Amino acid sequence: MALAEATAAALPRHPAAAMRAFIADVLAAHGLREADAARVAELMVEADLTGADAHGIFRLPQYVRRLRAGGTNPRPDITVSRRAPAVAIVEGDNGMGHLVMSKAAEAAIAIAREAGVAWVGARRSNHAGSGAVYACLPIPAGMIGIYTVVASANHMAPWGGSESLLGTNPLAIAIPMGEEDPVVLDMATTVVSYGTVKAHALMGTPMPVGWMVDKRTGEPLTDPRRSAEGILLPIGGYKGAGLALMLGLLAGPLNRAAFGRDVVDFNADDRTVTETGHVLIALDVSRFLDPAEFQSEVRRHLEDLRASARLPGVDRIRLPGEMRAARRRDRVANGVPIPPALMAQLDRLAAETGTAPLSSR
User: Fold this and answer.
1) What are the Cα distances from residue 241, in Å, to 160, 222, 247?
2) Of residues 70, 65, 59, 155, the one with CA closest to residue 98
3) What is the pLDDT at residue 310?
4) Considering the domain 191-233 in this protein, what is its CATH number?
5) What is the pLDDT of residues 293-318, one digit of tens each?
6) What is the DSSP annotation of 184-214?
7) In this structure, which topology does domain 1-69+338-361 adopt according to CATH?
């Protein structure tokens, strides 16, 4: 979730290039190969540019803790195993999730060029940040991308339960629109991601009622510092909990990856291998119809939706990906807002690794 617009407007902004260089330097100082550090930095900053503020540079201190503790392999040997004409599995060797999913996207695009569609599972991976970043990787190839993952901690209960056995297991879908902004849906199966809760805790701001409930009493929980006492609520009641379960089974057991009680809470445990599983599907639009015809038809329907009658008090109808694209244009031009509490953490990382601080770049 993006920082509130009013909050973001008041914060200092930092160029994306400086952020990428800073992240790459810090990761390289913790053992990543230079090219791998640069790729992780690129994907992390893409999350920041598009407004996924809880999944970009915000996560760097946490990633560094796991690298230092040995929970993540800084130099993985990531391999791809083709299992069928349209199916592959990526073995991540406990590497950074960004690297594992980058390899998965390469495989998915190559396979979909041959078969029209590709289902690529990944295992032995780690947290990879924003789902939309990976759903969008097939877009330059003219392909639809669909992504899900078993979240890197359980913060939701099965419907009617009080024990955290399900993750926020997100779903991201990206549809190419040629030179125009893609249509992009990126959603957690909980009302908000846990990263957003962590961001509220960092900034010392309360959570709205409806995000979490106390797991003992079922009463609303609004203090993000007490999030360990609560469970996140699913979107749409039992439907969201059911969706999280089904997506988790596809990304977890199908890939021989963690799910349910086997999931390691990477927020609390820096040492244990997380065994994270992901799925990326690539679908070649040209196998159905001419891409330009498809885009024209999608555009027609989107215009109908935008121009449709609005409820009282609604200024405009917003469609998936519109705010994401507008925010990216703004942040590419004007920089990414970073809260002071996060900048203090980044400054400590710079001092500890002997790299130039972000504020001086």
Assistant:
1) 10, 21, 10
2) 59
3) 97
4) 3.30.60.50
5) 999 999 999 999 999 999 999 999 99
6) EEEE-SBSS-HHHHHHHHHHT-PPPTTSEEE
7) Hypothetical Oxidoreductase Yiak; Chain: A, domain 1 (1.10.1530)
